[in-house]
Amino acid sequence: MKQIKTTDAVGHVLCHDITQIIKDVTKDVVFKKGHVVREEDIPVLLSVGKENLFVWEKQEGMLHENEAAEILYEVCKNDYMKPSPVKEGKIEVIADIDGLFKLDSERLLKINSLGEIIIATRHGNTIVKKGDKLAGTRVIPLIIEEEKIKKVQEIGESKPIMSILPFKHKKVGIVTTGSEIFHGRIKDTFGPVIVDKFGEFDSEILGQTIVNDNKNEITAAILEFVENGADIVVCTGGMSVDPDDHTPGAIKDTGAEIVTYGAPVLPGAMMLVSYYNRNGREIPVLGLPGCVMYAKRTIFDLLLPRIMADDKIIKSDIYRLGEGGLCLNCQVCTYPNCGFGKGR
What we know:
Layout: E1 2-5, E2 13-14, E3 18-22, E4 26-31, H1 42-47, E5 52-56, E6 62-64, H2 65-76, E7 81-83, E8 90-95, E9 99-103, H3 105-112, E10 117-121, E11 126-128, E12 133-139, E13 143-145, H4 146-156, E14 162-166, E15 170-177, H5 179-182, H6 190-198, E16 203-211, H7 215-227, E17 232-236, H8 247-253, E18 257-261, E19 272-278, E20 281-288, H9 291-294, H10 299-308, H11 315-320
Parallel strand pairs: 15-16, 15-17, 17-20
Antiparallel strand pairs: 1-5, 2-5, 3-4, 6-13, 7-8, 8-12, 9-11, 9-14, 10-12, 18-19, 19-20
């Protein structure tokens, strides 16, 4: 820290707040500690009686908090994102579209483990809207070692640690199984739930085919939707392990690659995720457990945003859902503002 004349202070960093007092008008801080003095600031500083200022001495190998914050933002930023103005070593990352927020948790941990710098984010694999805050970056000290910031850059040099995948328009086919529904003995109440779920996204329901508990018929109904241009096929009914539950086998008989049948999520343990390859295009074929019909939120709510953003689901993604995969069935459901599905 050193004292210099205010007229020579351009480019220097203030070591203390500067307060402006105008009788009956204002008494407030006009320049905060850490502010980098600009040419246009000089008249204001002189007007509040500051002929001299205490500033940080620029040291080789050290960065001002705002310079460092800009670098933290660069490590985070990706397409469809924008920054807030830098202020006191802080920059917020803002979503510029609706979409699925993705986060590299491992590299985030490495950066935060360096100390004296932070990147605080929302959970990955969650829906964001345009204007939502995705993350906040902050440099703790006023001046930080440049070498530490270089380590941040090294961690983020391959690609940004965050991204937003835009949601796509999807054509959806629904295959409903069950002799009781096929023969009209009861009314189907599952299909409307699925329609409502997809109604939260840019989707088009191609139709609903109701078939008997016959594996060949279920397989044929799935393939018919695929041939008719479906981007997603959802199967309801017959997803248990009872002898007359044929939906999992019927999905397998289409030739779809089964990612998982079963998931460490409650409600939703009997979920089936698979992909059918049609001319190089991977079409999700999902077998939904019965809980999707009556529970407020299930595994389907956790996976659907990823399906709508063409974010392919792999086996380990399902396994990771175990931590946080227990819905507490709160009397007042606040999902997605709760811990369901957000363990990792």
